[in-house]
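Thread amino acids onto this structure.
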């Protein structure tokens, strides 16, 4: 029995470390991608303006209203329990601005039911986590897989490829033109007339 409990504890710790790593990797990937998007937009400023000029303006813009109320009745009770423990350690009414980032990250994790971020915040605050049963481990593994997919999708973006594959930019540029439907002759004419 003690041996089985030790194995379970190691499995839980392994899952938590994997989640922490994935969370950091996603954060780093998003930071790099933000820079790569700026670089891409700067390098393709004329092309993006050319595309915008060719496309008809939308007659009306739709405003997306996001409901930020948390429906706690659908949140997994263990996730909610971890959140409550985090709030005790981070709430601005108690701790001022000191833990505001972690407080907000936990709130967002609860809203999105993101086990990875919730466990990462709890680990940063050294909050003891409850033992996870197989259902929770399965939810965490699904969440981890989702984060891996987010990371991979970001790394497959045009901006990421443009900025990380400098040696292939000539080929990439042709592919980007084709993807955006940019006729090179029309674009050259646009560049001549824009000044």
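Threaded sequence (195 positions):
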């Amino acid at each position: 029995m003690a041996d089985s409990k030790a194995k379970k504890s190691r499995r839980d710790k392994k899952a938590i470390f994997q989640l922490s790593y994935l969370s950091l990797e996603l954060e780093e990937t998003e930071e790099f991608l933000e820079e790569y998007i700026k670089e891409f937009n700067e390098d393709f400023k004329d092309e993006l303006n050319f595309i915008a000029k060719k496309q008809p303006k939308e007659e009306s813009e739709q405003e997306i209203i996001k409901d930020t109320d948390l429906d706690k009745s659908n949140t997994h009770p263990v996730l909610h329990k971890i959140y409550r423990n985090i709030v005790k350690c981070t709430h601005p009414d108690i701790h001022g601005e000191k833990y505001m980032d972690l407080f907000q990250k936990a709130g967002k994790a609860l809203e999105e039911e993101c086990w990875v971020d919730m466990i990462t915040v709890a680990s940063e605050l050294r909050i003891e986590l409850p033992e996870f049963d197989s259902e929770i481990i399965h939810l965490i593994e699904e969440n981890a897989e989702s984060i891996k997919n987010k990371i991979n999708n970001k790394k497959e973006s045009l901006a990421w490829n443009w900025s990380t594959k400098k040696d292939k930019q000539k080929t990439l540029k042709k592919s980007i033109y084709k993807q955006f439907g940019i006729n090179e002759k029309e674009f050259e004419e646009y560049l001549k007339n824009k000044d």
